[in-house]
Design goal:
about 375 residues; binds 6-O-phosphono-beta-D-fructofuranose; alpha/beta; Rossmann fold; 4-stranded parallel sheet; 7-stranded mixed sheet; elongated; 11 helices
C-alpha cells in the first residue's frame, strides 16, 4: 500500500478496488455508485472486481469503473459487479483432473491486489464475506468493509441495507394474502428468509397484520399455534395468517434444512418450516391450510428510499475510511451517524438476533399476536 509522503499517517491512494460478495441485497448498486463517484471526485481510479473474491484470482474479472458505468444504477436491485456465496479463497473448491479438491487461493488474492496496483479494496458483504475480508486484512491487504444483508443479522451496525426492501416486499405479500385467505376461510402459512435471525419475519409480520409469527429466537409449540388459529375461527374471523421465519423451529426440534447440490457452498440452506406448520395445523384443526415460500423475491427489486440512502451513506463513508487509512474496519450505522468498527469485532460468525424482550415483540404480544410460546403478560385484547 502506498503511504503518505507527508508522514501524517494517511495513505496515499491512487487506485482502489470494489467488490460485492455473498447473497445480493437491494442497495448494493447504491453503495457502488456512491463509492465510485466519491473516489473519482478525489482523483482516484476505481477497479470493479467481478463475482466477489473470485474476480481477484481469475483473469479478466477486474475492470476500471467510470462515472458512466455507475450512471442510473441507484434505483437498480442486484449488483452490477455480480456476486457469489461460494467463493472463499481460503477454502476454494474446484476440480483437478476430475477430482474435487479444496485449495487455499489467498496467496493468489494478495498477489493479484499488488498486480492490479490496488491501494485499498472496499468489500461489500455479509458476515461470510467480511470474515474473509478480515483474514485478508490480517495478511496485510488494505481492506475496508461495508455491511450488507437482507437478514439484518450483522453485528456492529443497527441496520444493514437491503433489509428494509425485503421487509417491504414481505409486507406487501402479506397484504395480498389477506384477501385470498379471507375469501377461502383459509389459514395461510408464509415462510420468510432471515437465516438464524427473525428480523424480517417479525417486522413484516407486525406490519402485515399476521396472527402468528414464528422466529428462531422463540422456540414454539405447535399446539399453541393451533389454539391461536382455532381462536380466530371461533371469533368468526374465519382465516389466519401465520408468518414463519425460515430458521424458526418447534422447541426441542432442529431447524428445517434443504438439500442442495451447490458445490463450494459452505452453509446449509434453510427451508421447509412453512410446509410443516401448515400440515400440522391442517391435521390438528381440520382447517383448510396452504403454505408458500416467498424466497428470493425478498432479495430482488428496486431498493426502498431507506436502502438507497443507507447504501449511499455507506459507500461514501467507505471512501472516507480508505482516505483515513482505516483498514481492517467496517463502516456501520450508529444513529444518527455513520461510524466504523474493527472487522475483528463483527465478522465472528455470531449473527445479531432479535432481542426477545424488544418493544416490537412486546407490542405484538400485547395486540394478541402469537409467537407460539406461552406468554404470561397482559391478557389479549379482543
Ligand atoms: O443471507 C441472505 C439469504 O437470502 C438468507 O436469508 C437465505 O437463507 C440465503 O441467503 C439463501 O441463499 P441462496 O441465495 O444461496 O439460496
Amino acid at each position: 500500500m502506498a503511504t503518505s509522503a507527508t508522514g501524517e499517517g494517511k495513505p496515499k491512494i491512487r487506485r482502489i478496488g470494489i467488490s460485492t460478495g455473498g447473497g445480493d441485497a437491494p442497495g448494493l448498486n447504491a453503495v457502488i455508485r456512491a463509492a465510485v463517484k466519491s473516489a473519482l471526485n478525489l482523483g482516484w481510479e476505481v477497479v470493479g472486481i467481478q463475482r466477489g473474491f473470485d474476480g481477484l484470482f481469475r483473469p479478466g474479472m477486474a475492470k476500471k469503473l467510470t462515472a458512466r458505468d455507475v450512471a442510473g444504477i441507484l434505483t437498480m436491485g442486484g449488483t452490477i459487479l455480480g456476486t457469489t456465496n461460494r467463493g472463499n479463497p481460503f477454502e476454494y473448491r474446484t476440480r483437478v483432473k476430475g477430482k474435487a479438491v479444496v485449495k487455499d487461493m489467498s496467496g493468489e488474492v494478495v498477489k493479484s491486489v499488488k498486480r492490479l496496483g490496488l491501494d485499498a479494496i472496499i468489500c461489500i458483504g455479509g458476515d461470510g464475506t467480511l470474515k474473509i475480508a478480515r483474514q485478508l486484512a490480517d495478511m496485510g491487504v488494505p481492506v475496508v468493509g461495508v455491511p450488507k444483508t437482507i437478514d439484518n443479522d450483522m453485528p456492529g451496525t443497527v441496520i444493514t441495507f437491503g433489509y428494509d426492501t425485503a421487509v417491504s416486499t414481505a409486507t406487501d405479500a402479506l397484504d395480498k394474502l389477506h384477501s385470498t385467505a379471507a375469501s377461502h376461510q383459509r389459514t395461510m402459512v408464509v415462510e420468510l428468509m432471515g437465516r438464524y435471525a427473525g428480523w424480517i419475519a417479525l417486522n413484516a409480520g407486525v406490519a402485515g397484520g399476521a396472527d402468528v409469527i414464528l422466529i428462531p429466537e422463540i422456540p414454539f409449540d405447535i399446539d399453541v399455534v393451533c389454539k391461536k388459529v382455532e381462536d380466530r375461527y371461533h371469533r368468526r374471523r374465519n382465516f389466519a395468517i401465520v408468518v414463519a421465519a425460515e430458521g424458526a423451529a418447534p422447541a426441542g426440534h432442529g431447524m428445517f434444512t434443504r438439500e442442495h447440490r451447490d458445490t463450494g457452498r459452505q452453509e446449509v440452506l434453510l427451508g421447509g418450516i412453512a410446509a410443516w406448520v401448515a400440515e400440522e395445523i391442517n391435521k390438528r384443526t381440520g382447517r383448510e391450510t396452504r403454505s408458500l415460500v416467498l424466497g428470493h423475491l425478498q432479495r430482488g427489486g428496486n431498493p426502498t428510499t431507506f436502502d438507497r440512502l443507507l447504501g449511499t451513506r455507506f459507500g461514501a463513508a467507505a471512501v472516507r475510511l480508505v482516505a483515513e487509512g482505516g483498514f481492517g474496519r467496517m463502516v456501520c450505522l450508529r444513529p444518527p451517524k455513520i461510524d466504523s468498527i474493527p472487522l475483528a469485532e463483527v465478522a465472528t460468525g455470531q449473527p445479531r438476533k432479535v432481542p426477545v424482550d424488544s418493544d416490537t415483540v412486546l407490542s405484538a404480544r400485547m395486540m394478541g399476536i402469537c409467537f407460539g410460546d406461552k406468554w404470561d403478560g397482559p391478557s389479549h385484547p379482543r
